[in-house]
Amino acid sequence: MDLANIWKWLPTLLLALESLPEYNCHLKMSFIKVVEKSDFSYYNLPYGIFSTADNPRHRIGVAIGDQILDLSVIRSLFTGPSLSKHQEVFDQTTLNGFMGLGYNAWKEARRTLQVLLSANETTLRDDVTMRSRAFVPQSSARMHLPAEIGDYTDFYSSKDHATNVGIMFRGKENALMPNWLRLPVGYHGRASSVVVSETPIRRPSGQMRPDQSKPPVFGASKQLDIELEMAFFVGKGNPLGEPIPIEKAHEHIFGMVLMNDWSARDIQAWEYVPLGPFLGKNFGTTISPWVVPMEALLPFIEPNAVQDPEPLPYLRHTDYYAFNINLFVSLKGEDMTEEDTICKSNFKYMYWTMKQQLAHHSVGGCNMRPGDLLASGTISGPDPESFGSMLELSWRGSKNLELSGGHTRTFLQDGDQVKITGYCQGDGYRVR
């Protein structure tokens, strides 16, 4: 079996969050040094699961600057009304328990962390013993999947991406299927092969039919592709049979990660009719180790895409829920001296919102659970540089992507490294 030493590195979302009104107060600086270009500002504070060589137990941490704050060490400091009786969730080895506590607990935890980390708060700053136990350098930590993922659903919510793919396979007149503008199309993926960034991905084998006049053949995929996506973790779930109304959807969305939903296009093209993706998708899906809470992203909300025709009532919401998150994909081959950016996109290009995805997923009574992962689908924009897959960038392999040093690609080669990064930008400033 032909194997590819192809892997994807997803560092984090790089956020600038200084416009959040509730933080424009005395809590402006942390006693932890955070350099200007840090990925992990005082306004980010993403959650993740880490271990260290001297303590291999998985535990919950929050990133700030180049440090990780170990929440198992400071669990007793969460004394608010929502968390004082549930401090044990910070001793768990995944985020599922914390996610399951719900919206009020998440807000309380974030506010508590910002108080504890502020420069003028002495509780943690001046407790030398606790500080020595609570902070771990990120450089000495190993990151793990943030949650036990019970179920994984991948949507198809970029109109530009769906249109491009439709044109390739069905022609311009039939680019979008009749249901696409009426509901968020999605499929159930394979949760067991969702892995954290820097996990090697092997080139899959399966059936393909490259020559339509001949029978299918078996072998390693020759059209291995990336898909630029973002995904959100469900927090508190819903009982079986009781849908999550769109008005309450935000309170069930814990936070977001970057994602690459690896795709074997030649396997997928042969197998997907009539039931959708199978072997062409289930060999690997990569997510970033840090989960950025929705409260950190709220300052970057923008107007939703104009939806025509108007969705049915259960999918309608007038409040904004598109997010201005700049996204980049870079590629570096074994034969290349530097990485090349092959895509510049933005999460705001999505047609269907996360609220609509969650409301539609549960409207039939499906019970969502803490740690369920719901992905956006490929994030493509209106111009070629914003196309979020090599399928689109090479237009189904019909043209080469020109890279530095005279190198070219249509799809991934063995040894290619792919990196996805993102950042949010406020008015007049940008923090990377």
From TrEMBL:
Q: Which SUPFAM superfamilies match?
A: FAH, Fumarylacetoacetate hydrolase, FAH, N-terminal domain
Keywords, alphabetical: Calcium, Hydrolase, Magnesium, Metal-binding, Phenylalanine catabolism, Signal, Tyrosine catabolism
Q: Which GO terms describe its biological process?
A: homogentisate catabolic process; L-phenylalanine catabolic process; L-tyrosine catabolic process
Binding positions for substrate per the UniProt entry: Y156, R170, Q268, Y272, T378
| InterPro entries per record | Fumarylacetoacetase (IPR005959), Fumarylacetoacetase-like_C (IPR011234), Fumarylacetoacetase_C_sf (IPR036663), Fumarylacetoacetase_N (IPR015377), Fumarylacetoacetase_N_sf (IPR036462)
Q: In which pathway does it act?
A: Amino-acid degradation; L-phenylalanine degradation; acetoacetate and fumarate from L-phenylalanine: step 6/6
* UniProt key word Metal-binding: yes
Enumerate the active-site residues. Answer: H161 (proton acceptor)
- Where does the secretion signal sit in this chain? 1-16
Superkingdom of the source species: Eukaryota
Q: Where does Ca(2+) bind?
A: D154, E227, E229, D261
Q: Which cofactor does it need?
A: Mg(2+); Ca(2+)
User: Which reactions fall under this protein's catalytic activity?
Assistant: 4-fumarylacetoacetate + H2O = acetoacetate + fumarate + H(+)
What range(s) does the Fumarylacetoacetase-like C-terminal domain occupy? 153-421
- Binding-site residues for Mg(2+), renumbered to this chain: D261, K281, T285
Family the UniProt entry places it in: Belongs to the FAH family.
Q: Any idea what this protein is called?
A: Fumarylacetoacetase
